[in-house]
Design brief:
By secondary structure, this protein is an alpha+beta fold. The chain has a single domain (about 5-225), classed as L-fuculose-1-phosphate Aldolase (3-Layer(aba) Sandwich). Helix content is about 40%, strand content about 15%. A seven-stranded antiparallel beta sheet has the order 4-3-2-1-5-7-6, sandwiched between helices. Strand 3 (about 65) and strand 4 (about 70-75) form a beta hairpin. Helix 1 (about 5-25) packs parallel to helix 7 (about 185-205). The longest helix is centred in the C-terminal third of the chain and has 24 residues, at about 185-205. It is globular, with a radius of gyration of 18 Å. The chain starts with a helix and ends in an 11-residue tail after the last helix. The model has no long low-confidence stretch (mean pLDDT about 95).
Length: about 240
């Protein structure tokens, strides 16, 4: 395929910066985690290479794959999670970036196989209610196309949830995925998810009987930032 090299380079640079932001925000250690970004007009996805340490990561290291997940540019093999990213881009056509981490608190909730309840406004500013946790993969799914089946479970968890108001999921026994309009926003959502997961763990330790925040409060805080009549922040920002 013919690639617009200038746009492809920009996409790689954007995805490289986003991956390095995972380190800066304390969301990954060693070679865990990955960020991808998509250029839908080019029909390309850029993603972190598998197993490459973050301190060795360069924009030239970022792998380009097509919308089927086939490598089209790059010297390295793409992330082993590439099939999950590819499927999410196909299922959620508005998103432009996907992040997977093993951040401490969000991963702990995923490994506990518990949805993350919305207990207050900090959570509600970014996630409109309980962050879902997927069903546990079956033995057949694990033995088959594992990463593709991971995406299947994520999509299934969103059958009755709007992914635009809930840009995060906990994959049971595994870890979190987040998404956004671009790779930078997806990383931001990963950081906010981690913070909300930590706050929730502390709140439940302080008051094990605490319940979810009122729906009216959750909606007000989410919509004042993300709704059609959002008024949080500076006009035109």
């Amino acid at each position: 395929m013919t690639i617009d090299t200038r746009r492809a380079r920009r996409l790689r640079e954007q995805v490289c910066r986003a991956n390095l932001d995972l380190v800066a925000k304390g969301l990954v250690i060693e070679t865990f985690g990955n960020v991808s970004g998509i250029d839908r007009e080019l029909g390309l996805i850029a993603i972190k290479p598998s197993g490459v340490p973050y301190d060795e990561l360069r924009s030239s290291s970022i792998v380009l794959v097509d919308l089927a997940g086939t490598r089209v540019a790059g010297d390295f093999a793409p992330s082993s999670d590439t099939p999950t990213h590819v499927r999410l881009y196909g299922e959620f056509p508005e998103i432009g970036g996907v992040v997977h981490t093993h951040s401490r608190y969000a991963t702990a909730w995923a490994q506990a196989r518990r949805p993350l309840p919305c207990l207050g406004t900090t959570h509600a500013d970014y996630f409109r209610g309980t962050v879902p946790c997927t069903a546990v993969l079956s033995d057949a799914q694990i033995a088959g196309d594992y990463e593709e089946e991971t995406a299947v479970q994520i999509v299934e968890a969103f059958r009755k949830i709007d992914h635009r108001g809930m840009p995060a999921v906990l994959v049971a026994s595994h870890g979190p995925f987040t998404w956004g309009k671009d790779p930078a926003e997806a990383v931001h959502h990963a950081a906010m998810l981690e913070y909300a997961a930590e706050l929730t763990a502390i709140a439940i330790a302080l008051n094990p009987r605490v319940g979810a925040a009122k729906r009216t409060l959750v909606d007000r805080h989410f919509l004042r930032k993300h709704g059609e009549r959002a008024y949080y922040g500076q006009p035109g920002a």
